[in-house]
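User: I'm putting together notes for a lab meeting next week and I want to include a structural view of one of the chains we've been expressing. I don't have a solved structure, so I'd like a prediction I can at least talk through. The sequence is below, exactly as it appears in our construct file.
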Amino acid sequence: MPDFDLKPTRRCVLIAGAASMLQVGTLSAAAQPVVTVHRDPNCGCCLGWVQHLQKAGFRTKVLETKDLDAVKTRLGVPNDLAACHTAEVSGYVIEGHVPALALHRFLADKPYATGLAVPGMPIGSPGMEGEKPEAYEVILFGPGSRRSYMRFIGETPLN
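Assistant: Thanks for the context. Below is the predicted structure for the 159-residue chain, given as structure tokens.
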């Protein structure tokens, strides 16, 4: 039987470490939750928001519907928080032009809530670029409660 030296060399350890890091990176990208976006087929700003999420590393699935009100009702979006599209991710509801930064933080925090909302269509929010950006709030909402989660001007957080 041949005599082999089974002690790992530094080169073998480095190669194995690099390979495992590549595998972990691939797994974490594959484990990223899918954001399912319900949108009216005639709304262009919704696709701008979807592109914003994709650039931030989110996987997306777009479902076109002409009855967004039924989707909002089914998912528990309060009327005064409504916007032009509604999304679902990891059991949460995301209403309107919520910046990817807020969504990443929210999914990491995993609060007890229904979801996040940016009511209306604030100028400068992701998907609504163009004119001078205005300040807007991202609202955390749930059954019977809501509070400010983050504030932004454009995609820049204020808090």
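A couple of points you could mention at the meeting. Residues 10-31 form the longest helix (22 residues). DSSP finds four helices and eight strands in the chain.

User: Perfect, that's what I needed.
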